[in-house]
Amino acid sequence: MDADVIVVGAGLAGLVAACEAANAGRQVLLLDQEGEQSLGGQAYWSFGGLFLVDSPEQRRLRIKDSEELAWQDWEGTAGFDRPEDHWPREWARAYVSFAAGEKRSWLRQLGHRLFPVVGWAERGGYGALGPGNSVPRFHITWGTGPGIVEPFERRLHDLAHRGLVRFGFRHRVDSLIVEGAQPGRGGEVVGVRTSVLAPDRADRGRPTNRTVVQEREIRAQAVIIATGGIGGDHDLVRAAWPDRLGTPPRHMVTGVPAHVDGRGIGIAQEAGGRLIHPDRMWHYTEGVHNWDPIWPGHGIRILPGPSSLWLDATGRRLPVPLFPGFDTMGTLAHLQQVGADHSWFVLDKTIAGKEFTLSGQEQNLDLTGRSWRGVASRVRTDVPPSVQAFLDHGEDFVQATTLDELVAGMVALEPDGGLDPEQVRREVRARDCEIANPFSKDSQVVHLHGSRRFLGDKLIRTAPPHRLEDPAHGPMIAVRLSTLTRKTLGGLETDLSARVLSAAGSAVPGLYAAGEAAGFGGGGMHGYRALEGTFLGGCLFSGRAAGRAAAAATA
């Protein structure tokens, strides 16, 4: 099974890296501890969002964007402030140029297509130099997660038929083979040691066995680590949790399958690679328990529009500008400093039907199935079927005809949560007093009116302003929200050729990294915060760089 290039991890970054190396004529072996049914990894389950700058889709919606504005937003969001941010910043600058340049055309040549309405994630709400997207940049893949995986999966199978790619599924990499090490100087990575796991046909995303049936050594001129982050292991997440984000949650829901365990990062460290920024992470605050789970602790993120009222566990409204969809990490830090593991959305049926989108391809079958009829029915339907299923079956949802009944339901759901019923009533009624006029001192109401000036939000994302206690828009709804584990923002430090660097700053010969294992490039190109649509894009960009560099080095 020896090869020119071994790629460890068959997620999106690994698929892209394998394609690029094989396209250059190299013999590539793609290894993964899961079975063939899990090809594509986390990307398959995603909503398929991509960060693009000054795209035709933006211009059609009269969005004026530029590389200069995007870089201003990226720098303000990332907050680079450490000596170790040299390579992350270089990667970030290169990625923004890629997103403003050939990214869309490169994907389009591979058969990738986009949904025409652009979303506005991470809206910020601070000054011009603060975090957040100044304009909508979230482009949804037509076909969601499977639609982003398919072009590379198809290409890999073509390359396999030509004899350039081989697959080693159920191969768990346990260590790297390092030769030529000398005192004070590391050696060269020349292969991997693997445990071959027993076959397991469990459905994609579900846990598989770890029964070892054989051990192997496989050699190559270059090894690319593309094994993802630590989001599937709550203990690892808590161990890396920084003080600036408050107390780690005692209870979290899980946004990735259990095999996302950070294993590859530790293996690369043992071979001399340097891990930087392990304290930088990205978790969502709008997680709910999946009523029909696939993996253990499976959580789903609500991608909210701007109208829901966001309350902490005591019933107090979150401070400006921590509104739904504005600042994920700012909201996470605030809520954890409050000291509770949950918060609340308060809304009504009209807002849920118009503004609630659920993360994940399985929650958006119209977009995943590329059905224009399904998308049109979403507009005509009061509440999309996936959202209605959570209203009917979700353990985190309360519905009531009056505010008093809603508050009673919230207390019943969290009897020891410290909720102050009178505070909830005060917050809802104060907000409703502000909504009656087109003018307001309430910043969220001002943003709500501003959102509807953007055609995409007005058409499919933002409900007309109205009172939450208006029975015409009922029933009223409360949603208990939990922290949803997702992305590791730090990772293995790499140069712009995706070569893994040692603590001394020199490249570890033969070792490359891509995707989440490399902090999506450089060891953390997002810094402290992300602009959304940049995780899949970071896998694409770093996987491409790693595959091309490894191919060039093995010529």
UniProtKB/TrEMBL annotation:
This is FAD-binding dehydrogenase. It comes from Arsenicicoccus cauae. PANTHER family: 3-KETOSTEROID-DELTA-1-DEHYDROGENASE (PTHR43260), KSDD-LIKE STEROID DEHYDROGENASE RV0785 (PTHR43260:SF1). The keyword Flavoprotein applies. InterPro entries: FAD-dep_OxRdtase_2_FAD-bd (IPR003953), FAD/NAD-bd_sf (IPR036188), KsdD_DH (IPR014614), Succ_DH/fumarate_Rdtase_cat_sf (IPR027477). Residues 4-536 form the FAD-dependent oxidoreductase 2 FAD-binding domain. Pfam families: FAD_binding_2 (PF00890). The lineage of its organism: Bacteria, Bacillati, Actinomycetota, Actinomycetes, Micrococcales. GO terms for molecular function: steroid dehydrogenase activity, acting on the CH-CH group of donors.
